[in-house]
Write a structure and sequence with these properties.
5-stranded antiparallel sheet; 33 helices; 54% helix; elongated; alpha+beta
C-alpha cells in the first residue's frame, strides 16, 4: 500500500431521507456504475449520488495506523481473492466444508463427559481434591445410603409406623435390572451384635442433631466425646473364647435403620401397636432390637415435641435409611455406571435398583394415611436429577433454534416469491451446526471433556453465526453487478475484515478464559473458541458458496423455496423492496444525534451506569449445589422437608490420620479432640479412641496397666467386634483381617468423625474450614493428616470463584482491548469500545443482583461470555465510524456509522436475545442463569453500542482512517479506495460491520 494524501473534490451531500427511502433493489448498478466509481475515485450511493470524503493528512497517520492500515489492506486483498475463488468454485467449496465436518465428527469416537461436581467446579489442585484422591485409595466407599423422610402432623402414631413397615415390605421385594436384582441381594449386611439394653439413665432427652445427608450421628452425654459404652456389653462379661465363639454364629441382617428398630422389625408387634404404645416404646428404647447396637431413637426424628418431663410426645418427621453395598465383582468386570453426583463407580444392577427404590418410595397408590407424606433421596438422586434436568431442558434450546430460524428467514430476504431466501437461511444455519460438530469433534479428539454447561454452546454459536450472516448479506446487497465472482470478492473485501474483527476478539476472549483453574469454565471456553473459529470459517466459505448459488437462482427468477420452479415475466412489487429497518435507522440517527437527545442520553447513561455499579456492589458470592435441582423434582421436596424439620443438622466430615505412632500419640490426639470441641465450629466429635478408653475403663484387668502397643492391638481387636465398638470398624484401614481371638493387625490409617455447626454464609463456611485445617495442621503427630467433608467441595469453590471471575474478566478485557486496538488502529476507539464492554458487564452484574442471582460458577462462565457478546456491538459501530469520512465532522460520521451498521447490529443482538429468551421456561439453574445474563448482556450491549457510543463519538470521536491511493497497483488494487470510502453514509459502514 502507499499511504499518501489524496486530493478531494467536493461533491453533493448525502441523500435526503426521502431519497434513501426510495432507493431500489441493490442488485443493479452493473459495470457502468463501477466504471463511474473508478473514474471519480469515489463510490456513488445506490441512487448515484457522489459523497464527499473528509480529508486526512499524512501528519494525522501515526505508526499504529500505518501498521494496522497495512494489515487491513492485506486482509481486504486476501478476502477479495478468497471471495472470487469461492464464487468460481462454489460446489467444490461446499464439498470441502462437508468433508471437513465429517472428518471432525470422527473425534466423537473419543467423546467423554465430565459431570462430577468436584471435577467441574473446583480447581484440581485444591485441598479437597488432594484429600479426596487419598481417600479413594485408603478409604474407598463401599456403601450407598438411601433416605426416606416421613412427614405428618405426628409421625409417632400407630398408622404411620405401620405404613413405614408396609414400605419396608414393598422395598424388600423390589426388583430391577435384567437380573431382577432384589434388596436382599445387594443390601449391606451387618452382624446382629450380642448385648442388652442399657439403663435408661444413661441418656438424657435433649434434642439430637441428625445429619440427613451425612454419615454417622451418635448421642453422647453432656461433656463427653465419643459414644457411651453399654453397661452390659457381652464382650465385657463373657470370657473371650466364649464370646468369640458366639460371634461366629451371629446372623447378619440387611442394614436398614429407623424407627422400626424399636420393635425389631417384628411385623406382628408393629401391626398391633396403639398410638400410646408407640410413644411409650420410643421413650423406652435405647438398644436396637435388630442389630444390638446402642441406639438413640431421637436421631431418626425431626421437629420433636417433648412434655414437661422431657419425654418425647410427638414428632413431625422421621427418617428411614437403607444402606446398600457395591458389587465389587461387577465393578471390577466393568459393569458400572458413573454416579454423576459424587463421581463414584456404581455397579449397574445396584444403580438400576436405586431408581426402582425411588419409584417405590414415592408411589402413593398404596393409600398412605391421610396427611402422611413420604420423600425420597437415593444415593444417585442428585446426579441423576440434575443431569436429567439439564438434558430435559435441551428442548428449550431446540425451541430457541426454531425461533432463530424463523427470525432469520423473515429478515434475510425480501417479501416476494423470488427474492425470499428461506433455503439460503437454512443453509446458513446449517453452517453453524457444522461448526458445532467441528467444535465437539476436535475438542473430543484433543481430550477435552464435555461438561453440562456446554449444552448451551449450540445456541450461542447460532447467535454469533447469524450475526456474521447479516454482515455478509449487508455487504453483498451493497454491491451490484452481474459478475458474481467480482461481486463476491468485493462483498468479502468489506465483510471479511468485519467478521474477522469480531470473531478474532471472541476467540481470543474465550481462549483466555480457558486458562482458568475451574475445569467447567475451561472446557466451555475451549469448545467455544474452536466453535467460534469454525463458525467464522463456515460463514466465509460454506454460506458464501450457497449465497452465490442462491444469487444465480434469483437471477433466473426461480422460487426462493422451490428452486426448481421458475417465475416467468416476474417483477418485484414495490412494497417488497422497502427496507423498513433502514428507514427507521435514518430517522433514529437524526433524533439520537440532535443536541437535546444527546444531552439526555449522556445524563441517562450516567445514571444507569451509577445504578448498575451500586447494584453490582450488592452482588454477593454464593454457590449451592441444590440449585441444580429443579423445584418440580422429588429431590427438591426432600431437601425442603429435611431443611424444615432438621434445621440444626450440620455437615458431616472426617479427619484422617496415617502412619501415626500408637499409642504414643494418643495424648496429642485427645488434646486435638478437645481443641475441636472448644473451637465452636463443630458440634460433635466421634473418636474411636475416646470410646475405647471408656471401654477399657470398665474392665478391672486394665487397672494400673500401662497402655502399650501390644495391649492396644489386643484390646482393639475385641473392641471392634463388640456392641461398643463395632460401628467404628469402617474407620480403620488395617494390614490384614480382624480375628476376635488375636490382636488386631497393624493400623495403616484411621479417621475420626466430626459434625460441623450449620454454616449458611460463604464467610462462615470459609471460617469453619480455615479453623479445622489450622487445628489439623497443628497436631504434633507424624504421618499424614487431613480434614475432609463432602461440603468442603462447595466451601472451597466459594473461596475461589470470586477470584477466578475477577481474573478472567480482567484477562478477557485486556485481550479484547489489545485485539481491538490492533484491528481498529485507533487507541481512542479501542478505549471507547473497552469502556462500552465494561459498562455492559457492570450492567449485567447489576441486573444479576436485581434478578436474584449470585456469583457462582455458572454465572462466572456467563459473565465471561457476555464480554465476548458485548464487544461485537461496540466494535461494529466504532469500526464503521472510523471508516466513514463524510464532510460535516464527527456528527455526520456518527450518523453514517449508525445508519449503516445499526440494522445489522440490531438484528444480530435481537437474534441472540431471541435464542436465549425461550430459556425463561427452563427449570435448570444453568439455563435460567444464561437466560438472565445473556438477555441483560444483549440489552445493555445494544444500548451502549447503538445509543451511547454514537453520541460519544459525535463529541470526541477519533479521526477517520486515511485513504491511500495506489493507482500503480494495477487491476488487483484498483478498488483500494473502496476499502476506505463508503458508497453512502450507510453502505460503507455496513460493509465494515
Amino acid at each position: 500500500m502507499c499511504p499518501t494524501k489524496q486530493s478531494q473534490t467536493p461533491s453533493p451531500g448525502p441523500p435526503s431521507s426521502e431519497e434513501g427511502a426510495a432507493e431500489g433493489d441493490t442488485g443493479g448498478g452493473g459495470d457502468a456504475h463501477d466504471e463511474d466509481k473508478t473514474k471519480t475515485g469515489q463510490r456513488g450511493g445506490r441512487s448515484g449520488a457522489l459523497q464527499p470524503v473528509e480529508e486526512t493528512s499524512d501528519e494525522d497517520v501515526g505508526c499504529l495506523s500505518r501498521v494496522s492500515g497495512s494489515l487491513t489492506l492485506s486482509l481486504e486483498d486476501f478476502f477479495e481473492q478468497h471471495g472470487r475463488r469461492v464464487a468460481a468454485w462454489p460446489g467444490v467449496v461446499v464439498l470441502c466444508c462437508l468433508a471437513l465436518t465429517f472428518l471432525s465428527a470422527a473425534g466423537f469416537l473419543f467423546f467423554t463427559k465430565e459431570l462430577r461436581p468436584f471435577r467441574l467446579w473446583l480447581p484440581q489442585e485444591s485441598e479437597f481434591i488432594k484429600v479426596l484422591d487419598w481417600q479413594v485409595h485408603n478409604f474407598p466407599s463401599n456403601y450407598r445410603r438411601h433416605l426416606a423422610v416421613w412427614e405428618a402432623d405426628n409421625v409417632l402414631e400407630a398408622e404411620v409406623v405401620q405404613e413405614m413397615w408396609r414400605l419396608h415390605v414393598r422395598v424388600s421385594v423390589v426388583t430391577a435390572g435384567p437380573n431382577h436384582t432384589t434388596w436382599p441381594q445387594l443390601c449391606a449386611r451387618v452382624p446382629t451384635m450380642p448385648g442388652s439394653d442399657p439403663a435408661p439413665d444413661d441418656y438424657d432427652y435433649e434434642d439430637f442433631d441428625y445429619g440427613v445427608l451425612g454419615g454417622r450421628r451418635r448421642r453422647r452425654q453432656a461433656g463427653q466425646v465419643g459414644v457411651p459404652v453399654p453397661r452390659e456389653d457381652l464382650s465385657l462379661s463373657l470370657p473371650r473364647e466364649q464370646y468369640c465363639d458366639s460371634l461366629s454364629m451371629l446372623p447378619k441382617a440387611c442394614l436398614e435403620t429407623g424407627l422400626l428398630e424399636v420393635w425389631g422389625h417384628d411385623e406382628e408387634a408393629i401391626m398391633a401397636l396403639t398410638d400410646q404404645q408407640v410413644i411409650d416404646d420410643v421413650n423406652a428404647a435405647h438398644l436396637s432390637l435388630v442389630f444390638g447396637y446402642q441406639f438413640n431413637v431421637t436421631r431418626y426424628l425431626g421437629s420433636v415435641t417433648r412434655n414437661a418431663s422431657g419425654h418425647v410426645v410427638a414428632a413431625a418427621a422421621a427418617t428411614q435409611v437403607w444402606v446398600s453395598a457395591l458389587d465389587q465383582a461387577a465393578v471390577a468386570a466393568g459393569e458400572v455406571v458413573v454416579d454423576q453426583g459424587n463421581g463414584e463407580l456404581v455397579d449397574a444392577a445396584g444403580f438400576a435398583w436405586e431408581q426402582a427404590w425411588v419409584e417405590t418410595v414415592l408411589n402413593t397408590s398404596a393409600r398412605l394415611p391421610a396427611g402422611v407424606r413420604v420423600f425420597a433421596q437415593a444415593a444417585s438422586s442428585f446426579g441423576k436429577v440434575s443431569d436429567d434436568n439439564i438434558w430435559g431442558d435441551v428442548k428449550w434450546l431446540v425451541v430457541g433454534m426454531v425461533a432463530m430460524s424463523v427470525f432469520v428467514n423473515g429478515t434475510l430476504g425480501r417479501r416476494n416469491l423470488v427474492q425470499q431466501r428461506p433455503l439460503l437461511a437454512g443453509l446458513g444455519l446449517l453452517s453453524v451446526y457444522q461448526a458445532v460438530v467441528i467444535s465437539y469433534g476436535l475438542c473430543s479428539l484433543l481430550g477435552v471433556p464435555y461438561c453440562p454447561v456446554n449444552s448451551i454452546l449450540p445456541i450461542l454459536l447460532l447467535g454469533l453465526g447469524v450475526d456474521d450472516m447479516f454482515v455478509i448479506m449487508a455487504a453483498w446487497e451493497a454491491e451490484g453487478g452481474k459478475d458474481l465472482s467480482r461481486r463476491a470478492g468485493r462483498a468479502m473485501r468489506h465483510a471479511g475484515v468485519a467478521i474477522t474483527v469480531t470473531s478474532l476478539t471472541d476467540v481470543t476472549a474465550f481462549a483466555v478464559g480457558a486458562t482458568t483453574a475451574l475445569p467447567a469454565l475451561r472446557s466451555f471456553c475451549l469448545y467455544a473458541s474452536v466453535g467460534i473459529l469454525s463458525v467464522y470459517v463456515m460463514q466465509a466459505t460454506f454460506f458464501l458458496a450457497w449465497l452465490v448459488k442462491d444469487e444465480q437462482r434469483l437471477e433466473a427468477n426461480k422460487n426462493g423455496l422451490l428452486w426448481c420452479v421458475t417465475h416467468h415475466d416476474w417483477s418485484p412489487r414495490p412494497c417488497s423492496q422497502w427496507d423498513l429497518l433502514a428507514a427507521t435507522f435514518r430517522q433514529w440517527s437524526r433524533l439520537l444525534l440532535s443536541t437535546p437527545c444527546r444531552v439526555f442520553v449522556l445524563f441517562f447513561s450516567g445514571g444507569l451506569l451509577a445504578c448498575s455499579a451500586w447494584a453490582s456492589t450488592n452482588l454477593h458470592q454464593e454457590f449451592d449445589p441444590s440449585w441444580f435441582i429443579p423445584s418440580s423434582s422429588y429431590l427438591y421436596d426432600t431437601f425442603r422437608v429435611t431443611g424444615l424439620h432438621f434445621p440444626e443438622a450440620g455437615e458431616q466430615g472426617y479427619v484422617y490420620f496415617a502412619n501415626v505412632s500408637l499409642p504414643e500419640d494418643l495424648p496429642e490426639l485427645n488434646r486435638f479432640v478437645d481443641a475441636l470441641v472448644e473451637s465452636q465450629v463443630v458440634t460433635e466429635v466421634n473418636a474411636w479412641f475416646t470410646t475405647l478408653m471408656d471401654y477399657m475403663a470398665m474392665q478391672s484387668k486394665f487397672d494400673n496397666t500401662t497402655l502399650t502397643y501390644a495391649v492396644l492391638q489386643d484390646t482393639l481387636s475385641l473392641f471392634l467386634q463388640s456392641s461398643s465398638g463395632a460401628s467404628y470398624r469402617q474407620d480403620f484401614t488395617i494390614d490384614g483381617a480382624l480375628d476376635c481371638r488375636r490382636p488386631a493387625p497393624p493400623i495403616i490409617s484411621f479417621r475420626i468423625g466430626i459434625t460441623h455447626r450449620p454454616a449458611q454464609s460463604p464467610a462462615a463456611q470459609a471460617a469453619a474450614l480455615s479453623t479445622i485445617q489450622s487445628l489439623v495442621s497443628a497436631v504434633p503427630v507424624g504421618g499424614y493428616r487431613a480434614a475432609w467433608a463432602q461440603a468442603y467441595c462447595i466451601w472451597e469453590t466459594n473461596q475461589v470463584v470470586g477470584t477466578e471471575l475477577l481474573r478472567n474478566v480482567l484477562a478477557a478485557g485486556v485481550v479484547v482491548g489489545v485485539v481491538t486496538l490492533v484491528l481498529l488502529a485507533s487507541a481512542p476507539a479501542a478505549l471507547l469500545v473497552l469502556a462500552a464492554v465494561a459498562a455492559t458487564v457492570t450492567g449485567v452484574t447489576g441486573v444479576m443482583w436485581a434478578w436474584g442471582l449470585t456469583i457462582d460458577t455458572v454465572s462466572c462462565i456467563a459473565i465471561v461470555l457476555s464480554i465476548g457478546l458485548s464487544v461485537d456491538y461496540a466494535a461494529h459501530v466504532a469500526h464503521a465510524f472510523l471508516a466513514a469520512r463524510q464532510a460535516g465532522g464527527r456528527k455526520a460520521r456518527a450518523r453514517a456509522a449508525l445508519e449503516g451498521v445499526g440494522p445489522a447490529v440490531l438484528l444480530g443482538g435481537l437474534s441472540t436475545m431471541l435464542s436465549f429468551v425461550v430459556l425463561v421456561a427452563s427449570t435448570s439453574h444453568v439455563f435460567i442463569t444464561f437466560f438472565k445474563v445473556f438477555t441483560a448482556a444483549s440489552a445493555f450491549g445494544l444500548y451502549y453500542g447503538l445509543v451511547l457510543l454514537p453520541v460519544i463519538l459525535s463529541f470526541i470521536g477519533p479521526p477517520a482512517y486515511p485513504a491511500p491511493a495506489c493507482p500503480d497497483k494495477g487491476a488487483a488494487h484498483h478498488h483500494t479506495n473502496d476499502a476506505f470510502t463508503p458508497d453512502t453514509p450507510s453502505d460503507r459502514a455496513v460493509s465494515h460491520a
